[in-house]
Amino acid sequence: MTAEGEARGRPRVDTYGWCDPRFRRVREVFDGHFADGEELGAAFAVFLDGEPVVDLWGGVADRHSGRPWERDTPALAYSCTKAVTATVALLLAERGLLDVAAPVADVWPEFARKGKERVTVEHLLTHQAGLPVIEEPIPVEEFEDQPAIADRLAGQEPIWEPGTAHGYHALTYGFLVGEVIRRVSGKSVGEIVSAEISGPLGLELWVGAPDGVAARAARLSAGERRGASAPPASPDAPPASSQAAPEAVSTVAELPGREPGDPIHEMARASLDRDSLMNRALGNPPVHRLKGGANHPVVLRAGWPAMGAVTTARGLAGFYRDLVAGRILRPATLRDAIRRRVHGPDRVLFVDSSFGLGYMRPALTFLTPARGADSAFGHTGLGGFLGLGDPGHGLGMGYTMNKMADAVSGSLRAHRLAEAVYDSL
Q: GO: which molecular function terms (predicted)?
């Protein structure tokens, strides 16, 4: 429990769980976030060399009802999903069903249109395909029809020549990679995750939540914004924004960064422009058309392979524990998958991003403590979620919450927690 909040004029928030004594600093940071009013509800879990060393939770899962955050409260973890989807693709590659170096059209013939004949599966996994935006608005009736959405992308022309640049495919990543997976396996990403990863390994992780899981999921809420970036998708959804950028602002004059042309400045400016590539990439399918935005059952059960994972912190950390331990992919497969394929200015986010085969590597979009700079991999999620694995240090960690960050960049909460973990090693 923590009483610091009372001393700072905030209501007392109880936190639960435990830490190995070596990781007591992690508990202090976790409690401090509640004391400072940065959290509504949250959970953080860490495995070291396969053993649990941190399992913390606290606060409320729903600010409207006051429902408490329990040890098994799941949350929609947004783009943390991308690493799970990449893992499914790599699992199929290990079995000889998929060649990531081959053209997408080899398994998806309809994709070979409008200059996409030579786009490879690797281009999809590394955000180099030039298809970060779905140009036609997706009707709500199509939200759960992933092949139909993928077909729209198959008919589009790339925004840049595939393979010549990378730019974050915030939502399209999932529909593209997911369709490749469906073509070679006959199954959705969610079906394979349940049958071959989370089910056998006992992980609280679903790509597409069953009704019972969706009913107890945390309700995502917008944080207190000091300015206005792109408008919120719903009263309970965060502003349209990327996973790494500066604090929300209301006018160009307030933008961070040294001057126009500075990547941080340009990213913040894009967040103010409804028609920017960044906001277009995040805004279709238009989740704001559903009551409650991303909290709506349609989103929770749809299993979009770019943002549809519903998981507990322990389930997300366990996923990385098992990846690092070689229980999901062969060690050689993982070593190759986390090798940096692209690094540098992101065509959608402006700031530097770095990717292996679907996994983020340390960069401004995936802030990592210095000790993990060479070996950490994983993925962030809009608003502050984090999944991280580190084979060099034997780590798997997961952070989930429901108070979406009030900054375009997402919160530094996850980074502080990760820093406390590395400092405790």
A: hydrolase activity
